[in-house]
Amino acid sequence: MAGRLSTRLVKHIASFLRQYQRNSNCNNNTTTGTNTNITDTAVDSTMAQATETPLAARLASTKLLPAALEGTGAIRVCIDRGGTFTDCVATFPVEATGDDPATERTVVVKLLSEDPAHYDDAPREGVRRILEAATGRAYARTGRLDTRNIAWVRMGTTVATNALLERTGERSVLVTTRGFGDVLRIGNQARPRIFDLAIRRAGSVCEAVVELDARVVLNAQGDVVGASGERLRVAREPDWAAFRAQMAAVRARGIRSAAVCLMHAYTFAEHERTAAQIAREEGFTHVTESSQLAAATAKLVERAQAAAVDAYLTPGIRRYVAGFEAGVGGVRVEFMQSDGGLAPAHAFSGLQAVLSGPAGGVVGYAATAGAGAGAPAVVGFDMGGTSTDVSRFDGQLDHVMEGSAGGVAVAAPQLAIRTVAAGGGSRLFFRGGLLAVGPESAGAHPGPACYRKGGALALTDANVVLGRLRAAHFPRIFGPGEDAALDEEAPRALLAGLARDVAAQTGAAQALTAEALALGFVHVANEAMCRPIRALTEAQGHAPQDHALACFGGAGGQHACAVAARLGIGRVFVHRLASVLSAHGLALADVAHEEQAAAAGEPWTAAAHRATLGPRLAALEAAARERLAAQGYGAARTAVQRFLRMRYEGTDAALMVREPGDGKGGDGGDYAAAFVAMHRHEYGFELHDRAVVVEALRVRATASLAAAPQPGSDVHSELAALRRTPVVSPATHAAHVETANVYFDAGWLPTPVLRLDALAPGDVVAGPALVLDRNSTVLVEPGWAATATSSHLVLERLSEGAAGNECAVSETASGERAAAGDESAPPSSLPTTDPDPDPVRLAVLAHRFMAIAEHMGRTLERTSVSTNIKERLDFSCALFDADGALVANAPHIPVHLGSMSHAVRYQLHSARAVHPLRDGDVLLANHPLAGGSHLPDITVITPVFDAGRIVFFVASRAHHADVGGIAPGSMPPTSRQLFEEGAATMGFKVVAAGVFQEHALRRFLVDEPAAHPGCAATRNYRDVLSDVHAQIAANRRGITLLRQLCAEVGQPVVHAYMRHIQRAAELAVRRLLRDTHARISAAARSSSGSTSTSAAAAAGPVRLHAADRMDDGSTIRLAVEIAADGSARFDFAGTSREVYANTNAPPSVTASAVIYCLRAMVPDDLPLNQGCLAPVTICIPPHSLLDPSPTAAVVGGNVLTSQRLCDVILAAFGAAAASQGCMNNLAFGVPPADDGAPGWGYYETIAGGHGAGPTWDGQSGVHTHMTNTRITDPEVLERRYPVVLHRFALRPHSGGRGARPGGDGCVREIEFLRPMAVSLLTERRVFAPPGLHGGCAGATGVNLWMRRQADGSAAEPTFLTLSLGAKNSVFVAAGDRIVVMTPGGGGYGKPENDDEDNTEASDNQPGA
Question: pTM to 2 decimals?
Answer without folding.
Answer: 0.85
